[in-house]
Amino acid sequence: MTLCSNEEESVRRCLKDDSFKGRVSLDVLNLNITQMDDLDLVASQTANRLRSRNIIDEQIKKIEALIESAEQYKKANLDNYLEYYKYIKVSEQLEVLERLKQAQYLNEFRCSKYPLYGRNLLAKLRGITNYKVLKSDAYDDIVFSVDRRSEEMGEVIDKYSVITPKVVAVDMKEQMIPVSTRTYVQSAALDGTVDNPFHQSQVKLSIAFPDKSLLQFDCGKLQKLAQLLQKLTSEGHRALIFTQMTKVLDILEQFLNIHGYRYMRLDGATKIEERQVLTETFNRDPKIPVFILSTRSGGLGINLTGADTVIFYDSDWNPAMDKQCQDRCHRIGQSRDVHIYRFVSEYTIESNILKKANQKRHLDNVVIQEGEFTTDYFGKFSVRDLVADTSIAVEVPDKPIDQGNGNMEKLLAQAEDEADRVAANAAMREVAIDDEDFDEEKNNGTTNGPVRDKLSSTMNDIGTGQNTRRTEDEDFDEGIGHIDEYMLRFIADGYYD
Are the beta carbons of 311 and 298 closer than 8 angstroms? Predict the structure, then answer.
């Protein structure tokens, strides 16, 4: 389609141009002798015999006879439609006659082409004189071919072909290259026999990418972030920017580099030893105004009190994660007010995320905080009050359990069912046996008796209600044991406020 369109344009351009009328085509008149040597002599003779001159002459004579018989109808008579119809037919026959004469004229020239030597003779002569061409490697090293030169200049083209020309003339090849040459090159390119050595440079000079500073204008959040950072840095604030995706961190890095902000980055790929170094550097150096972090990696375990502004570039479905991120700078050691900014794109999924997060936050306030379902609420009561099933509505002052009574196991046993007491006795017996097995001194046979005596005395105290007191030495010898026992002893010793 491309070749046909180019040829059609060339034909139309030639028809509009009258300059060709003053030129003579030597090829048509068989005067271009060197071009006819590509013909075969036998084929030329055969074409001369088959030029069918007599048949065309007979057709011309028949048409001329018809025209002579209708001589009176060569002029148009508009008064009689029948005569006007005959006039049209005579005109058509005259047109056919002129075409036949032109075809006969061109056919004579085309069929009478004879080569001077002929293709066969030239092929034989070339075969005789085909000598081996001497080739030098030194010449190839000095004078590069077009393909090798384009390959050698590939790096230079990649680095320095960056500015596209202001004006490009697309149709210059049609004005400078002949149609035959252009057709040959296009057909060879379609067949894959010719490679364009200038393709890389043409592509580099034809494609212009937009300036990287225009990155922020593709996103409303980046536009607002640019305004916000300019305001914060001018007022001496330092900001933490949290996002959930590391790809967004890459975009924020490009954005901060374009605007010239000094920053630090922390994500899941940051090593543990590097996190502490980044944290201390940011808190110590006020010249670093921005710290970009991922929500999962930078939301826990670090202290960034050097910043007083938190910016959430995108929200999390879980509001507790955002709260953890806020606590990175809003914590003990922060001497300034902390401002929180949250970017939300309207009419997108982020609006729904924010709505669901607010609902979860409200549910937490109603059920957990206002319902006092927290450890702070139960901290107002002592263990004695909780075990004795006293009313938790009455506030009782916190008092440590009296160590002189030594009846903690008894109180716990009385509060449990019979089956639970039996299970607790069996569990304590197993704990004592395990302590005996893993104690090196007891395994050596030096202190086997006291453990079993102690276990029996403990079980008797629970069963009969007798008060016993364990000394610190006995607790040390017995070991930590089960976590429940350790917690009870911790509270009984008065360490619980």
Answer: no
Dihedrals phi, psi of 153, to nearest 5 degrees: -90, 10
| 108, 51 Cβ separation under 8 angstroms | yes
Q: Per DSSP, which regions of 258-355 are E strands?
A: 263-266, 290-294, 309-312, 339-342
Please provide the DSSP assignment of 90-123 as one string: HHHHHHHHHHHHHHHHHHHHHHT---SS-HHHHH
> Rounded to an integer, what distance in angstroms lies between the CA atom of residue 244 and that of residue 353?
13
Q: Give the type of residue at 76.
A: A
CA atoms within 13 A on the CB side of 486: 7
Query: Which two three-digit tokens encode residue 414?
Result: 């009385």
> Whole-number mean pLDDT of the chain?
75
Which residues lie across from 309 on neighbouring strands? 239, 339
Sheet holding 290-294, edge to edge: 263-266, 290-294, 239-243, 309-312, 339-342
Show the tokens assigned to 274: 């590097």
Cβ within 8 Å of residue 108, ≥6 positions away: 51, 53
Q: Which residues contact 177 (CB under 8 A, 6 or more apart)?
A: 185
Whether the model pTM is above 0.85: no
Q: Per residue in 243-267, pLDDT tens?
A: 988 899 999 999 999 899 999 999 8
- And the tokens for 230? 């300019």
DSSP class of residue 20? G
- At 33-85, the pLDDT tens digits run 877 888 888 888 888 887 777 888 888 888 888 887 777 666 777 777 787 88
